[in-house]
Amino acid sequence: MNKAELVASMAEKSGLTKKDAEAALNAFMKSVEEALAKGDKVQLVGFGTFDVRERKERQGRNPRNPEQVIEIPASKAPVFKAGKALKDMVNA
Fold first, then answer.
1. pTM assigned to the model
2. Averaged pLDDT, 67-71
3. Nearest Cα to 41, choosing from 6, 78, 13?
4. Which site among 1, 44, 64, 89 is 20 to 30 Å from 29 CA-CA?
């Protein structure tokens, strides 16, 4: 499902227009992005949790020259952990 299909599904289920559903989806995504950028966790009970994980600095291999070892710097990565209700729905 792409964004347009998600907006259409949201509009159908909520009774909103597609324009309003897209505005709601964009506001949700922007709110999650801003919270994660501040280092906060976004928890939706039953659905899941959006969080930021720290990745340690590590060594890797240069794909063009496998003998060459390169340093991969530490970084932060957004992650999503599905909640129990979502897992149960998917596995049903």
1. 0.79
2. 94
3. 78
4. 89
Say which residue the tokens 């957004």 belong to.
Answer: 78
User: Confidence band (pLDDT; 50, 70, 90) for 87?
Assistant: very high
Altogether, the residues listed in the chain come to a count of 92
Phi then psi for 85, rounded to 5 degrees?
-60, -40
CA distance 5 to 27: 17
pLDDT at 92: 87
Cα R_g (the chain), whole angstroms: 19
DSSP strand E in 28-88: where? 42-44, 48-55, 58-62, 65-72, 75-82
